[in-house]
Design goal:
This protein is of the alpha+beta class. It has 2 helices and 12 strands; from the N terminus they run H-H-E-E-E-E-E-E-E-E-E-E-E-E. The strands form 3 sheets. A 5-stranded mixed sheet has the order 3-2-5-8-7, with no helix packed on it. Strands 4, 6, 9, 10 and 11 form a 5-stranded mixed sheet that branches.
Length: about 170
Amino acid sequence: MTKIIKSILVFHGVNNNLVFVRNFFVLIIFLYWGIINQPKIFIMPQQNYVITITASTPNVSDPANSSLTLDDNGNTNADPGDQITWRIGRGSGIGRISAITADSGSTDVFGPPAANEPAPQGSSGNWKGTINSAIAGNSIENYTITWYTDDNPEQGPYSCDPRITINPRQTV
């Protein structure tokens, strides 16, 4: 940086040093002022939210109207880029989750890409998805968890419809 300043000083000659220095500082002040006064988007560091399913109430006569008890009461608030993990709690009555999908007509807060969509995590029974990092704040996804009970794995599937709300992006 000092080489650039010296070469500019030599180029302008000794008589113009004061004018150059004044103009240089004015330029620095304008650049600094422009940077300081720009709105900044504050992105929260990525979080991993674990939603534990603590109980299930299968409705045999109307499986689509069954219910789950989730430790966040079925209302998850997350930020773009966050990971959501669904964990089957002990004694919940759930044998396995077969799908976690966005409801028809609802915003898909996970995709694209498809790799972000909720998927099973090995043989643990847990499912994990990553919120799309470009999703708009205040987006809402109503989604369906489809599952089978542990006492009668042939009966079902049952489903429940929780929701994920994307927090508004913070500007400072």
